[in-house]
Design the sequence.
């Protein structure tokens, strides 16, 4: 999970399964996400699409933070306000949204990383993958 600063406040970004579903449905698939974020060459669409994706990642980042805190009973489970897409459009200037794009891409890329942990092979020759566990955030 990554974070971004908006108007001096840090917010978590999280590409949850829900965020993945919503984003890929709108852009037509993960393979088309780059073109969608770039607005297919239209700067106005790029800014609008960035605000849309950011709003989803902010919403899911907060929901993930709250749920994880509740599951582990070690944090603040109180819901915090996150800016909506409309609020982002009114709050930020285009250049500010553009400056947030690396953080958006980092959160998306981080969620798609595959980590494989290897265990020694039963016969001692090489390694076999161990089954993993899903750790939130």
Sequence:
């Amino acid at each position: 999970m990554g974070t971004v600063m908006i108007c001096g406040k840090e917010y978590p970004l999280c590409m949850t399964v829900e965020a993945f579903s919503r984003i890929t449905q709108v852009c037509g698939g993960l393979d088309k996400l780059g073109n969608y974020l770039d607005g297919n060459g239209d700067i106005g669409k790029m800014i609008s699409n960035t605000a849309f994706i950011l709003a989803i990642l902010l919403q899911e980042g907060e929901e993930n933070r709250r749920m994880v805190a509740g599951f582990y009973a070690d944090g603040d489970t109180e819901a915090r306000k996150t800016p909506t897409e409309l609020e982002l459009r009114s709050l930020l200037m285009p250049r500010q949204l553009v400056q947030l794009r690396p953080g958006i891409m980092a959160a998306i890329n981080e969620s798609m990383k595959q980590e494989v942990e290897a265990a020694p092979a039963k016969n001692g020759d090489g390694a076999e993958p161990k089954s993993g566990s899903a750790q939130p955030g």
In short: The mean pLDDT is 86. The beta strands are 2-6, 9-13, 118-120, 127-129. DSSP finds five helices and four strands in the chain. The radius of gyration is 18 Å.
